[in-house]
Design a protein that fits this description.
- The chain has six helices and two strands.
- By secondary structure, it is mainly α.
- A two-stranded antiparallel sheet has the order 1-2.
Length: about 150
């Protein structure tokens, strides 16, 4: 079998990182938070979104986005509120508990990044992150919302 190309290496590495992050996060939280749910939570922590806006960001149907919001609302991570400028519309925002979970998710990422640095060495890790930052600075811009949650 041929050696994986750069794109495949990135895909495999991303999958390994996302899986390990989910494990560490579950250990810290005592409950599972799927990567797509964390992505939605991070979006609404930055600014209120309509369910339609979330569907567009996540590149899923409005029904799928609504189901995700329902699940996160049941867990106390997001809340729906009336839009102050359009009383018929609802906005989804992160709750205090949701923001706390995001802080824990960030802690989990630091743990995973530390594991990677420990595996490849601090100097190689620094070179990797610097090279990625250099490439991303000139790469075509990501669609609105950044990365599409394909996990």
């Amino acid at each position: 079998m041929a050696e994986p190309n750069l794109g495949m290496q990135f895909a495999f590495a991303f999958r390994a990182l996302a899986d390990r992050h989910a494990e560490v996060l579950a250990e810290l939280l005592g409950e599972e938070l799927k990567p797509a749910h964390a992505y939605l939570l991070r979006a609404v922590a930055g600014a209120p979104y309509s369910v339609g806006g979330l569907a567009e960001l996540l590149q899923v149907t409005k029904q799928a986005a609504s189901q995700m919001v329902d699940l996160l609302e049941d867990r106390g991570l997001v809340a729906r509120a009336v839009n102050p400028t359009d009383r018929r519309a609802r906005e989804v925002t992160a709750t205090d508990r949701g923001r706390s979970v995001l802080a824990t998710a960030d802690q989990a990422w630091r743990t995973v990044e530390g594991e990677v640095a420990g595996t490849v060495g601090a100097r190689r890790y620094a070179a990797l992150t610097e090279a990625l930052a250099t490439y991303l600075a000139v790469a075509p811009p990501a669609p609105a919302g950044g990365v599409r949650p394909v996990w």
